[in-house]
Specification:
single chain; mainly alpha; globular
């Protein structure tokens, strides 16, 4: 690998790690970077899931005390996350490379819209969510099916998983933001770990490029943890929105030769 590509991947890892630590949205940097250095789309998606997983795991550990209040529900979250992650990863590996390449700009657009409207969507869902919905058996079945769908998406395409998971938790009546972040990260960890296992079995992960991205991501996350209080969250969100829309537009232009 040329030095310029190595530095590009490492820098993308650092930036994505910093973004994930302070606001989320790091996949808008890391996934396109893998494509730019020549990693095939499906392998790039699998490798990006591998590189992002360490951040999910460390975040889950950081919120471990907030998860104890929901320990009765955790086995359900974990089980559905593992099942959905397997299905999503399997669906990705069954998708032809050309078809996935065609879907990339639409997937990025979907993830971008989720990121932009995430706060408004969560507020709307909180208003619409009945306080006693989790006591009704049909609501329990429906919420389980919805979580399974969320996790299938995460196994298929990791970008935007955290935002969808957070919206799901609002919909089923959660209100404690720390507990919600902990459960969100637990779901993301389980989906990613089982998806990575499927990708390893299939040989879809490119380890050299993924390791460079992972090291950069860990460094970026550590740096961001030290300086995050000095960074205005709104400015970070604006940067991510600009970046995600720009990258999405690039892939649309490249796909449709606009």
């Amino acid at each position: 690998m040329p030095l310029t590509e190595l530095l590009l991947l490492f820098a993308a890892g650092v930036i994505s790690g910093m973004l994930n630590a302070v606001a989320g949205g790091g996949s808008f940097i890391s996934f396109p970077a893998l494509l730019l250095v020549g990693v095939p789309p499906i392998s790039a998606n699998a490798t990006n899931t591998f590189a992002a997983c360490s951040g999910y795991l460390s975040g889950t550990w950081a919120f471990r005390h907030d998860l104890t209040a929901h320990k009765k529900q955790l086995p359900v979250y974990i089980s559905l996350s593992l099942i959905g992650g397997v299905i999503g990863a399997w669906l990705l590996l069954q998708t032809p490379e050309d078809s996935f390449s065609t879907a990339i700009p639409w997937l990025l657009l979907f993830a971008s819209i989720l990121f932009i409207s995430g706060n408004q969507l969560n507020k709307l869902l909180r208003k619409l969510s009945p306080a006693d919905n989790k006591r009704q058996w049909h609501a329990i079945i429906g919420s389980g099916a919805l979580l399974l769908g969320v996790c299938i998406y995460g196994g298929f395409f990791n970008a935007g998983l955290g935002i969808i998971a957070l919206s799901y938790l609002v919909l089923i009546g959660h209100t404690n933001i720390n507990a919600m972040n902990g459960i969100k990260l637990l779901i993301s960890s389980c989906v990613s770990l089982i998806a990575i296992a499927v990708f390893i079995y299939d040989g879809a992960i490119v380890w050299y490029e993924g390791s460079i991205l992972l090291v950069g991501s860990l460094l970026g996350g550590y740096v961001a943890a030290q300086v995050s209080r000095r960074i205005p969250q709104q400015r970070i969100r604006q940067l991510i929105i600009f970046t995600s829309l720009s990258i999405t537009a690039y892939f649309f232009i490249d796909l449709y030769q606009l």
